[in-house]
Amino acid sequence: MTDIRVNDKTFEPYLTVEEINGQVQRLAAEINRDYKGKRPLFIPILNGSFMFASDLFKAISIDAEICFIKLASYKGTKSTGQVVTAIGLDIDIHNRHVIIVEDIVDTGKTLSEFLPQLNHQQPASLELAVLLHKPDATEYPTHIKYLGFSIPNKFVLGYGLDYDGLGRNIPEIYQLKEH
Ligand code: IMP
């Protein structure tokens, strides 16, 4: 694998297809074990998580459902600040075992705003399956039960993650090269 250029930035190889797949299979095995008979509902957050969600879901061998959503944020009142709403959540999550699927947790802000809203609908349980976590960037900590990789605070792309709209189709994960 060699460096790639996307727009004005250079990225170097970081995680191979095999390394990613190894973690995805491990997470799926843990979920298969933990959720047997519970018919979990996977809720991947678009766009970034589509590739991770697809590979993870293919490795799920127990009965399970999936419902992709997109988050839209808009300015709320002064007291509520930024409000995040889910578009496409057409399944009632009350009493369901929900697994949110995210590509990356960076500051953690997105999930910190969204998870309380889901909890409000009283799911039977609510856990996170996240491929990448940047602990050094996290300002809003959330418990990630199923985590693929803990990574340094550097921008990454590929495997669903983009830089300025590009790079989502790359099967590996690349890291921003800093000089
Ligand atoms: P957070 O709310 O700061 O945790 O941001 C989460 C979202 O920011 C992710 O779902 C990604 O869409 C985006 N993001 C954060 N870090 C990266 C990165 O290194 N590469 C690509 N997208 C990123």
Describe it for me?
The protein is an alpha/beta fold. The chain has one domain (23-75, 82-87, 94-173): Rossmann fold (3-Layer(aba) Sandwich), CATH 3.40.50. It is 22% helix and 34% strand. It has 3 helices and 11 strands; from the N terminus they run E-E-H-E-H-E-E-E-E-H-E-E-E-E. Strands 3, 4, 5, 6, 7, 8 and 9 form a 7-stranded mixed β-sheet that branches. Strand 5 (69-75) and strand 6 form a beta hairpin. Helix 1 (17-34) packs across helix 2 (50-58). The two termini are 19 Å apart. The model has no long low-confidence stretch (mean pLDDT 94). The structure holds inosinic acid. Residues 48, 102-110, 155-157, 161 line the site of inosinic acid.
Gist?
The chain has 179 residues and is of the alpha/beta class. It has 3 helices and 11 strands; from the N terminus they run E-E-H-E-H-E-E-E-E-H-E-E-E-E.
Low-confidence stretches: none
Question: What is the distance, rounded to the nearest whole angstrom, between the alpha carbons of the first and last residues?
Answer: 19 Å
Number of strands: 11
Which distinct ligands sit in these coordinates?
Answer: inosinic acid
What count of helical segments does DSSP give?
Answer: 3
